[in-house]
Amino acid sequence: MSILIPVAIILFLVYLLSFYDNIRLMRKFWIYGGKMPGPPAHPIFGNASLFKNKTTEDFVEIFVNLANEARAKGANLMRTQVMNRIYVWPLNGKTAATILESSTEVNKGDDYSFLVPWLGGGLLMEQGEKWKNHRKMLTPAFHFAKLEGYLDVFNSESKILIDCIEKAMETQDTIDLFPFFKRCTLDIICGTAMGIKFNAQIEHHHEYVKAVEGFNKLTVEYSLNPFLWNKFVYWALGYQKMHDDFLLVLKKFTNDAIVERRAALASGAVEKETSKRKMNFLDILLSSEESMELTSEDIRKEVDTFLFAGHDTTSTSLSWLCWNLAHNADVQENVYREILEVFGEDPNEDVTSEKINRLEYTERVLKESKRMFAPVPGVQRKLTKDIVIDGITIPSEGNITISPTVLHCNPQVYQNPEKFDPDRFLPEECLKRHSYDYIPFSAGLRNCIGQKFSVLNEKVMLVHILRNFRLVPKIGFYETKPLFEVVAKPSHGIPMKLIRRY
């Protein structure tokens, strides 16, 4: 009993301090937020009422409408608030540049906190000197020569994808391509990042796949429910146990792969530095283990970051690309004709970097698809000090939300933003707008290190798909919507009728 009393006192004091800090932040953000453009906010709940009875399927429309209302009033930024958090949204590339080009305001925002137990310490979450050193170390993994070395995996897994789709077509008239793309990109990431054959396309029910899905769902639920931000509530409702169970599976999978690859390198079973081009992402980390003083946990976090950021974003981007092509038959036909002109009529020919770089029209189509459906709808920075943007003071501890979704739907930059028009990315058109008005992979110091990898992966898969199938939509364009989550997945998939070309 004598021990329990001081423990109870300490817990109570921690609760009081937490309660005080929440009140302090609410008061601070209420004062500053009242001077910013944005929807009326409640002193305690902020703008939570905007999201009542809504899902992340509705959020894109909510945020885009709020942004356009603010722009119509001449604002270059807007703010939203929920409980003890404030979010300030730049509404055009020029305003976003203040944060994107900052060398000091690079810390991730509050909404990333949920990912810390899994990815904290990896390139996505890290900050300061450690982030700079790891970024420098990992950059060679995405050089052009290295990407060429990944083409074998891109091609082989894309061919398996075609086989899997054709098998499904034997019994199904309607095919949702999204889960097929997710499994394919996961196999590609595992092959290129860790040099392992994962076989997600064949073994659909792997526990790692289930754990990724489960953890992603928890992430969304946590971000949408402020009551879950309280650790006791999170634990009492059983979320902490689910969280820990998923993490156990995720970490074990990666740690086992690291142990296996380290042993293979040590035994000479795989090539080491003799072929730099053949070294995968994990090999680079293992070869830098001593010089960079990397721990096994450091390596695990970087590999997990690449797995997490790589397969979900690419599969989502490719899904929206195919959705746009299915609903714009003329554009799809133009892309197909360009593919035939460059690659010829053999649907089994491997895609090469030399030929894929000649797909100029297809490149514009990819960019326009990412404008309409940015794979990552928003990134955040948490301010370390007060800053002034467009004459408005944004307080320290506040979040800046850089949203490609909001920036890409700006009617002041993109006329008729809901229209699919690849010619927006003709060279002369690009020169008319600020470079940060189009940022599907973010921009500045913390831009996506793997963007060239992702685009090349997407192009290779697209070439294989369109050489084999014509895409016909089974539902209306707006019957599936981008979810405003970590990744903008299609809410109802992308159901298609696929017509064989051969």
UniProtKB/TrEMBL annotation:
SUPFAM superfamilies membership: Cytochrome P450
Stored InterPro entries: Cyt_P450 (IPR001128), Cyt_P450_CS (IPR017972), Cyt_P450_E_grp-I (IPR002401), Cyt_P450_sf (IPR036396), Cytochrome_P450_Monoox (IPR050196)
Name of protein: CYtochrome P450 family
Cofactor(s) demanded: heme
MF annotations from Gene Ontology: heme binding; iron ion binding; monooxygenase activity; oxidoreductase activity, acting on paired donors, with incorporation or reduction of molecular oxygen
Keyword Transcription in annotation: no
PANTHER family recorded: CYTOCHROME P450, CYTOCHROME P450 FAMILY 4
Lineage, highest ranks first: Eukaryota, Metazoa, Ecdysozoa, Nematoda, Chromadorea
Protein family: Belongs to the cytochrome P450 family.
Residue numbers binding heme: C448
Protein's UniProt keywords contain Iron: yes
Record keywords, A-Z: Heme, Iron, Metal-binding, Monooxygenase, Oxidoreductase
Species name: Caenorhabditis remanei (Caenorhabditis vulgaris)
